[in-house]
Amino acid sequence: MKRRALKDLVREVNDLAASASSPGAESRLGALQARWAAGATDAEASVSDQYSAAVAAAHDSLARAAAARAEEERAAEAIESTLGVRRVLISRVESLDVDAPPEALAAVIEEWKSLDPLDHAAARELARHQGASLFELRASLDDFGLRGDAARAALVAAVDKLPRDSALPEL
C-alpha cells in the first residue's frame, strides 16, 4: 500500500477514536486493522507508529464508550426497578375497595414516602398513566426536592389535579 493510502488509514482510525460511541465502531476498527495488516508490510516506521498510537486511542475510546453504555443500562435497570416498586404500590391502592379501612391506604402512602426519591419523569408518568394523582404528587414533590425550579411546572400540574379542599399534608 502506498504511503498516502496508509496515512489515510491512520486518519480513519483517528476519526473512529473520536466517534467510538457510534454503532458499529468496533467492527469498523476491525476492518481498518485488517486493511492495515493486508497492506502495510512496507510501512515507514513513523507511519507505523502513528497507526499504533491511533489504534491504542481507538481501543481506549471504545472501552470508555462501552463503560458508558453499561452504566446507562445499569441506571435504566435501577429506574425500572424503583418504578416496579411504585407500580406495586399503585396496584395495592387500586385494589382497595371502598370499605377498606383508612389505615390500609395510609400504610401504602407511608411505604411510598419511605422510598428514595426518583429523579425521573417516568415516575410521574407512571402515576399520571394510572390516574394516581396522589402518587403523581409525591413523585413531583420528590423531583422538586431534587431539581428545584426545573421541576416546578410538573409539581403545579400535579397539585392542580387534586381537590382544592384536600386535607392531604402534602398540600
Structural descriptors:
171 residues, mainly alpha
How many β-strand stretches? 0
Q: Span between N and C termini?
A: 74 Å
Q: What amount of the residues lies in strands? A: under 5%
Poorly predicted runs are none
The number of distinct helices, counting runs of at least 4 residues, comes to 7
Radius of gyration: 27 Å
**Average pLDDT value?**
84
Structural class: mainly alpha
One letter per element, helices H and strands E, the order comes to HHHHHHH
Structure, explained:
- With 171 residues, this protein is mostly helical.
- α1 runs antiparallel to α2, α3 runs antiparallel to α4 and α6 packs antiparallel against α7.
- The protein starts with a helix and ends in an 11-residue tail after the last helix.
Give a concise summary.
The chain has 171 residues and is mostly helical.
Topology diagram in text:
Elements: H1 3-18, H2 25-39, H3 45-95, H4 102-114, H5 121-129, H6 133-147, H7 152-160
